[in-house]
Design brief:
Strand 3 and strand 4 form a beta hairpin. This protein has 120 residues and is α+β, with helices and mostly antiparallel strands. It has three helices and five strands; from the N terminus they run H-E-H-E-E-E-E-H. Strands 1-2-3-4-5 form a five-stranded antiparallel beta sheet, with helices on one face. The longest helix has 24 residues. Helices cover 33% and strands 26% of the residues. The termini are far apart. It has one domain.
């Protein structure tokens, strides 16, 4: 990767991370952990599968809600991102859950899930 491409990639990655963080903050949420920002989101999934694990991102939201992002099964090329909205720690019955096989679909799944967050 050239220096210019690395700089462009870092700027793009930083903007995407900032967008997610801004959305969480708008919802009065707190990020518990964020390993997904360390993953090269400009790469093909098959090239970074060894970095894709079940626990990639988690944020606490008002009304005992949790936004969770993971890759299932972890470290598997046949896996998928799973974005879940959990309420009252009821992991067996998420409020909303959506799968995505690539970064573009993950963004859509995340947007759809954030729309389900209870704010009142």
């Amino acid at each position: 990767m050239t220096i210019q491409r690395q700089k462009t990639h870092l700027k793009y990655k930083k903007n995407k991370e900032k967008m997610l963080i801004n959305e969480i903050e708008k919802l009065d949420g707190t990020i518990n952990f964020d390993d997904i920002s360390q993953v090269d989101q400009s790469s093909e999934i098959s090239l970074i599968v060894d970095e894709l694990k079940e626990d990639l991102f988690q944020a606490s939201l008002p009304f005992e809600q949790i936004l969770d992002i993971g890759w299932y099964p972890e470290f598997s090329e046949t896996g998928a991102f799973k974005v879940s909205l959990i309420e009252h720690l009821d992991w067996e019955n998420p409020i909303h859950s959506e799968k995505a096989k690539n970064w573009t679909d993950l963004k859509i799944a995340l947007e759809n899930t954030l729309k389900k967050v209870r704010i009142k």
